[in-house]
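I hope you will forgive my troubling you with a question about protein structure. The record follows directly beneath this note:
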Amino acid sequence: MSGLPFSAVVGQDDARLALLLGAVDPGLGGVLLTGEKGTAKTTLVRALTGIMPGISVLAKCRFSCDPADPDPGCPDGPHPPGTPAEYRAARLVELPLGATDDRVTGSLDVPRVLAGAGTAEAFAPGLLALANRGVLYVDEVNLLPDHIVDVLLDAAATGAASVEREGISLRHASGFLLVGTMNPEEGELRPQLLDRFGLCVPVVASDDPSRRADVVRARLGHDRSPAASTEAHAAAENELTSRISAARARLAGVELRDAELLRVTTACATLGVDGMRGDLITCRAALAHAAWQQRDTVTGADIRAAARLALPHRQRRGPFDDPGADADQLDKALGPDEDDDPPPGDGGPGPRDGESGGPDGGDRPDGGSPGGEPPSPFDTAHGPPGPASEPAPPGKSADQQSGPAAAPAPAGISAAAGPAFQVRHIQAAGLGSGHEGRRSGSRGPHGQPIASIWSPSRPELLPTMRAAVLARPGTAFTVTGGDLRSSLRRGRESNLVVLLLDTSGSMAARRRSATVTTTALSLLDDAYRRRDRVALLTFRGTEATVVVPPTGSAQLAARRLRDLPVGGRTPLAAGLEAVRQLVRREGWRDPARRPILVLITDGRATGDGDAVAQAERAASALARTSLTSIVVDAEEGPVRLGLAGAVARHLAAELVTVPGLAARAGPLRDQASHTLASIIRAKEAS
């Protein structure tokens, strides 16, 4: 079944405009569509190639060289004059999530090299070569390893790809429009990678029932008769193709006047955009927009349209920051246009993301003009501390005090967290074979070589040659099938970090609650930096709650810390059992990812029956799963019962205090103690 035509997609005008500008000028550095599932992100991207102009390529060139301007460094070259050419449609190359480095950049055909082939001849091009002069699409780009995203963005920005591995050293043209889509619920892109995407558009579904009905009707009509739908939109598709070709031809002659350039740089400085990439991309996008609108000079409307797509995501310095400036902030930073009443079709800001323009005055990219690694990213996400409760007198715990100021409410909201501190390195025992990360030791395809193994399907050159020489010393060099080797490497993997928080009445005192949320925030900060997945569970009252199921978004888990319900009994057994069930389910889904449990509690267990014995049995059952566990003792005050230590023994877990969780370096441990002391002073003073 053919896909929905680009011009048949209802709404999502900003997303369509961003893709069209990227088609006009692929040098913008890529387009990122970010938003919830089911908002036509993938539909738009796959429809884009239907309106991309076709290209002429040199016959038998694996790198799609342009006959009018062949790449002088092409590995398949040099291409002599008169080489036959052929015409074909622009390609859409999709990069799968499991793609490896050599699949992306290319690899060496080791058997051919050993048979005497030259480096260029034996080089097997990767997806970057296949996508040259086309579109490279990455769905769920936020789930790719960072280094692969970096390679893609480098190639998209420079128009070339370099390969340096296993004795290969070559460069080839790789000019393409990079388009990434992602659902932020699965984890955000790191700010330094997000900044490298030229344009970023939040994509949301319209909340207008009539507009939603239009979307459903368009989809149903196409699914019922794809051929009729394609034919009905053929004229609009051809018009878009012609406009892209015309805009590309016009682009080099579009003028950006000094006054408009100064508006861009002033806006970037006013909005606090780091670096110069935002200024440059906004100007390039404005030039592309002017060319798209068949203008020879950039106007205020072009600047506003470009800024709306290029600047908001560059204001984020950490994953907890707001997505960026709203329309009013952006308008204020850009200042008034020279003409406050722009001509029809070229005026003011267009509909917000997820809304639709149309023939009655909205912005339509196919017919009119649209109107116009960070330091501790978790530090400033939360508000000021709440009111305090007094410390318990000697001999009494916080939940045994009497009086209105001391007793925690039966059910309330957790205290705001203080600044995150750097925690010490926590890792799973032994060596795993999970996804590449920065936490626990692993054996696999990433890291430093430690041995070689027989690998007939994906051999590497140097281990294979070494095995051949050692197998037949003193004889002529030959290679057999038994010599084919690849490297076994020692590296680091990411893990599933499960945070289990005691939010019962014994932890509800403001001072202790703030300690728990600050410690949890620090652990989420650490998980973010080490590329882990996280899960957040709490227990209080009579049950445990999975607040955040396993996700790649530490940001989501940290946001949920802000308003956790607290108070009630302490069903520790229920919390431990909930962790056991969650870990078991995740083991079926992703067996290579090893879990690590961090339990933050004072060790109390209350409830029906013998709650302490139930908790001990639940802890012992969890320990039998070989789960790596750490118990953080959050008990405070001059008199300590040491109940968390008993839980740690049954859990076969390491027991630490909150200051002991800080990094081992003296200044960092002092930072944790200072953070917690500041929280206590603030609570007692309020």
